[in-house]
Structure formats: C-alpha cells, structure tokens
C-alpha cells in the first residue's frame, strides 16, 4: 500500500475566508519516506493548506488523501495514520506535560501501559522530564513545541504534519527536534512541515514546495528546486521580494 | 530652554477618550462583519433591551404622569438602588463584562493611567445595557419635572447621568478586582467565599423586603427610602425629587456623594487594572505536587474519576474533570451554580416568612410542592446552561480532539459525565439542605427528582446549543471577559436554552401539582429516569450533528486574531 500511494496527496485544495482567497487550488504529492518542506512567506496559506490536509478545516473545493485514505470521506482511518502539530493552536494547557501525553495516547485508543512507557521515553528524550509536573501553560515557547511534537509522535503515526515546528525554538531544542525527525524519517516515516527558515529546510529536506499567494510556485526535490543557486535566492525571486533603496525611512538614522 | 536630542520632531497628539470609543465601535463592527446571524441576534437583543427600557421608563415616570408625589422618592430610591446593585452583582454571577478592549493590549503603549482609565471607562459606556438603563431611568426626570419644574428636571437629569456613570464604574471596578483575585491561585478560595457572602446578603435583604411589603407598612418603607437616598445607591436618583419636594439643599450634597463614589471606584479600578496589565501572563507560581507515584496515565485521572476505565472515554472525562477545576472561567461557573443554587430556592420558598411579633421569624408554611419544584427547576436549568458554550471554553485546543477523530457521541457523553461529577453532588446537597430548611424532609425525594430531571433535560438541550451556537471566548485570564457582540448573543442563546429546558421539565412540576402524595415516592425514580434518559438521548442526537461539523465548530471557537 505504501508503495502505491503517496503519503499525502492534495488535489485542488481551495479555501477563501469572507471572499478573500487564502488558498487557490493546491496540488501536492508527498512521497512516502520523504522529508518535505513547505516554504512560503507569512500569509502564503501554509497553515490553511496543512489544516485542510489533516481535517481541521473544511476546504471549499478539492480533497486530501493520507496513504490513499480520503481525509474528508473516511476521517477515522486517515486520522489514525496522522500525527499533527498545529501552529498557533493552544494545547490543553492546563494539564501537565505528562497528563497531556496520557490524554493524547488514550484518545488515540492506545494501551495504557504503552502510553506510560512511551511517554516516559519521550519526556526523557525531549528533556521535559523535570517539567513533567508543571502545567503546559507555564511552559516556555520552545517547551510547548516539544510537548506538542511528543503528542504528535506518541501513537507512532505514518505521516507527521508539522506547522512551523521550529518557530520560536532555541537552537538547542531545534537541534533536538531535528534529530528526532531525522530518525523518524530514517525509520520509514514521512514528514511534511512548513517553515520560512531557509537553513533548516536546506539542511533537512529531501523535497521542497514553495507556496506564495495561495498557489504552489515551485515543487520538486531540493536539487530540482534549488538548481545551482541557494534556496534563499530562489525563494526571494519566486516570492518577489524588494530591497530597500535607502531613500525611504531616512528618519531612522539621525 | 534646550531641546533634548531625542525630542520627537512634532509634539505627540493628545490621546483622548474619543479614541477609545471609536476603537471600541470599530472592533464591534469588525466582529459583526460577515456574520449575519450575529447581527440579527444583536439587533433582537437590543430591541428586547429597548422594550424593557421603555417599560421601565413609564414605570418610573408614573408618579409624575399620575400627579401623585407620595411615592416619588420611594420609587426613585428603590428602583435606582436596585439598578446599582444589579450592575455590581449581575456581571459577577451571570453575564460577565464586555472586554472588547482588553486592558492588557494597552500595556505597551505610552499612556498614562489616567488616560487609560478614562478611555476604557468612556468605551464601557458605549453599550446596549448602559443606553437602556439611561433611557429607563430618565423616567425619573419626568417625575421630577412635573413636580418641581425645570430646575428639578435639570438636577434630576444630572443625577441620572451621574448614576449611570456610577453603575458602569462600579461594575468595572468590582469585576476587575474579583478577576485579579481569581487569577491568583492562592486566593481563589477566598474569592469564592466572598462571592458566597455577597450572595448570602441578598437572601436576608430580599426576605426583609418581602416581609416589609407584606406588612404594607409604607411609613417604614418611606424611612428606608430616605436612608437609601443618602447612600451612593440612591443618592444620584433622588436628588431631583428632593429639589421637587422643596429640599433643594440636599441636591448638591447628594450629587457630591455620587461624584466622590465614582472617583473612588475609578481609583480602585485603575489599581486592579494595573495588575491586570502586568500580571495577566503569569498565574502565580505552580504548586509543587507531592505525589509522584504511577505513570502519566495515573496522573491524568483525578481521584474522583479513578473508577473510569483507562480508555478514550475515561481520558475525555478525566481531562474535562481537571479542567472544570483548573480553568478559572469554568471554576467561576461552578461557584455560581453552588451559590445561586442554594440561595434562590431559599429566597423563593422563604417568601412566606413573616416578621409577626408574636411568632418571630418563622416559616408561614406556604411553601408548596409546586413552588419547590419550580425553584428546583430553576436550579437544574441554571446548572445545565453552563454547558451552553462548553466548546468555547476549550478554544483552539479543541483541535486535538478533531485531529484524533473523537466520535461526537462519545465526546458529548464524556463532557456530560465530567460536569456531572461536580454538579450531581451539588444538586444532592441543594435538595437536602432546602428540604431541611423549609422543614419538609419528606420532600427530598421528589425535589431531587425534579432537579435531576431538569438538569438532564437541560443537558440534552445544551448539547445541541453547544454544538450549533458555539462562540469563541477571548484568551485572557479574566474569567468574566467575553467578546463584544457575543454579550447579547450569549444572552439570547442562554435564554433560548433555558426556555426550552423549562418546557421539557414542566412534566415534573405538573406531576408535583397533580399526583399529590404518590409523587413523594415516585418523584425520585421517575425524575432520575427522565433526566438520565433525556441526557443520553440528547448526547446521542447532538453527537450525530457534531460528527458532521467538527471543523466548523473548531472554527467557531477559535478566537480570531
């Protein structure tokens, strides 16, 4: 089955809010076993696209399949194979880290003994064991990302969908998250994550898609997209950035 | 004078209250954009408010219109005093305050505290309830004008406006102070006790009031009205009447009392505002938890939920049960149920208390099974209506359940179970305490039956309301805060849910009226069966709806940023 179907398959996903188009028809194939980076400037529609892909936001048109299972027609089967770290979404933050893991594990129908064992390991590896009894609301931003990632990993999903996993994370935690994700991919899992940090994408990803203005502008393996230039040059060119000429904002220097 | 190097090129323009008012109107308008049903609910709510305001206007203008000034002072003092009390207490118990302009958002702006307080105060005045109250109490101006001519009318108008300022300032100061108390985990129990005491004071006051009315001793009431007129509760409202009745010297003194009170309230508000702006992010140090036994699963389950199986249902119940205690907003609701649930039945059923000089303070025995059932019905539906926006409490965290694909029926059943872990014991206490207090211990059975039946029917109704009519709550730590516009919407939905629940529960009252003694025995089993059946059926049917609109529900409860 894994051989036949891409890990994630998006077809013509579109969404507009109050008449304002956020995503205008996104097609994307994420091959199984790939480490996929979804790049885009702020407001490009990354979060909207990923939310529609995992069943958090109903698309106006189009569909999403996880390993061949339709997310919207057969959500139960599809969601079992998914691990999600949504961005800007609060966790149930009045639980402690351990309680939150237990909640997610049981919610996924796991055996309590397995939940205990895996949670202890995850808390240990992510250096959260000391904070296991502090409520998540009192965690720092980086710790929240880590506990969110732990919740997404707990049930051993086949596909991880991570929205901005490296946002507001200090370098030490970022390195830890990178290691874990690389091990997960090496073990046969698939990761797609959104970001606008070029170095991380360049270092980690096998495949890249650049999203801007609600549509995919470039897609392919890292080498195909990058060519012989740096990823940042390609990105700025595709998105259409501008550089300051020095005339404006003159009052900034006195 | 040397100009410092860092002086801005142009003078910063003065920020005035006008900016805050315009900001509030703009935020309100933006909240309505593209949400037709919100606009509709807002309009309907406003019209109902206007309707009541016009009715009250004529009620208060009645002495003037009839031309009889015997009761003018009394009406002004009591109606005005009740209005002020209502503004102070109702936000705490039921409605919350409109935090369209969250003070924490202004923390980084270079505004003096005085500017901020006057600005937020001015913005708070722009609201439907404030306008309705102004309209209603303007009836006093008519009365004063008829008896005292233009000068009295003018003084009365000034008094009414000052009175409105007093109401709004009081509401803000009290909720802000109470919120900062609830925010700190250490004093939350103290806050609960305080609220209980405040509510407890309502009981005796009402009893005394009812007894006084029954005595129809108008002279005594007149004396009371005069006294109230000299307190901040009545001063602004009675100033005009005083002028009309030839006590012109009293008017400036009363207005002075009012203004001094407003200034004091604003000063109090400004102090607690500071702590709201600075301390909003931190909720005090986390308590060290001594127990370290067992794995994470054992940690999740509170002791009261220890009997649950360690599966999806168990996890949902355990998490909800923890949240009802740990989330300040939810805890405030639980406290409200406990306090109101005890005191309203006491007040209703003690209406028959008399102050007969020979019997002293005793029950006149005019409490009937129907009256008791009605008061139980009220408590039951008040408890259940707490769940009307149960998903709004979660906010965007609800995404976890959507991603995990929790079936709707399981979700609703678990939420009902967790809430009932707290509420059912409370209801049992209410039934026992009220039965003993009114001296009818044999009534415990059917009282508990009526409570559970209403509560169960209410759970069914509110399961639907919570799935279809959810709205987002602002992500502040103020348990009384809510988005503007949502205020009226919330009121309408709550009212609808309560009416529907009441309709569903009327069989219990009818049975109490018709079945007589048999109901003493049948009440409990039938009531419990009715309640449990209704709740399960409601969760079953609403769960189906929830399955179809999980993403939509998530979008509704996610605060817009």
From TrEMBL, chain A:
Entry annotated with the keyword Manganese: no
Gene3D superfamilies given in the database record: P-loop containing nucleotide triphosphate hydrolases
UniProt name for this protein: ABC transporter ATP-binding protein
Highest taxon of the lineage: Bacteria
Annotated ABC transporter domain residues: 8-238
MF (Gene Ontology): ATP binding
Pfam families in UniProt: ABC_tran (PF00005)
InterPro entries: AAA+_ATPase, ABC_transporter-like_ATP-bd, ABC_transporter-like_CS, ABC_transporter_ATP-binding, P-loop_NTPase
Membrane topology: Peripheral membrane protein
Keywords: Antibiotic resistance, ATP-binding, Nucleotide-binding, Transport
Entry annotated with the keyword Nucleus: no
Localization, UniProt: Cell membrane
UniProtKB/TrEMBL annotation, chain B:
Transmembrane segments: 39-66, 72-95, 116-141, 147-169, 190-213, 249-269, 332-350, 370-388, 419-438, 444-471, 492-513, 519-542
Superkingdom of origin organism: Bacteria
Keywords on record: Membrane, Transmembrane, Transmembrane helix
Protein's UniProt name: ABC transporter permease
UniProt KW Translocase keyword: no
